[in-house]
Amino acid sequence: MKRMICAALGLMLAATPVALAESGGEALILTATVEGLTPVALKAPASGELAAFDVREGDVLEAGQAVFSVEPIRVYADVDGTVADVYVKAGDIADAAVSRYGAALYLEHAERYEAQATTRTGYNTVENRDLRVGMRVYLRSANEKHFADGVITAIDGSAFTVQVLGGDLVYNQDVKIYREPDYNSKSLLARTKLSVVAPYAVTASGTVTDVAVAPGDPVKAGDYLFSYVPDTLDPERRGAQDATAVKTPEKLIVTAVHVQQGASVQKGQALLTAIPAGRYQLKAQAEEGDTRLIQTGDEMTVRFEELDMPDVEARVTAVSPLGTAEDVSRYTVYLDFDAPEGIWPGMHATLER
What we know:
3 helices; 7% helix
């Protein structure tokens, strides 16, 4: 009977994590979990709408992989004309050009002449004073050698503005404006000079990412001119072909994706969080009675019992002084180790010393 009791007591002691005397200290067995070190957040480089992306929690991303991209704002011509001058290039801060020149670029109108006139210089009839915006008119040079059609675009009392359409009139030329195409003297609305319509200013605020036109290029309304983001991009991104792409700095494991398809984001907003692949630590729980056996710098043997791989060594880096509120408090122990190939966060290991 005594032999049976002694045998049972021996088995109980063998299963106990501590209290086995060894040369140099007491035996200690802990269960640990692999977790990632130094979490990484990939952030939006600029404000705007995200392009379509394909990433989810748990994905492994290779170093340098483009994960997200912010869509720059695309600017299109509002008028037909010719590019007069361009004051920006990819990478420039558009605000600087706008502050100095009044625009990022200017477009000369295709119909660049107009006439500021007054009915007081024309034939005085009720019909000639009864003008309407959109009314078609007819222009002839004072020497009667050049002609053009026109349309009234603005009226202010007796004053009115005519947009010149085509023709061969010359800038600053003396012209007469008629109500009828036969240039009858009784339909004379006004005498005046031609002037040039101010070029159309195209503005932006932020960092230019692309410019598609050059001075002298003809454009139609709706043609693409340039793109920009409404922020000052970091210097290393300015002028880059993929200036708004979000790339991984190293191989990562995605732990959370914080945005949805088509989301509008702000510069610096976290898009996903991840942990560097292979840079892990072990996290174990030690009962309060065992903490006296653990010191920073202690070496422990790590066994991944579910995996067919050799044991590795780990070193205690910290023991948390905060315990759990239980009958027997537990304290977190952190250990550093070189993770073998095939080890992933969340795997379990047995630690023994």
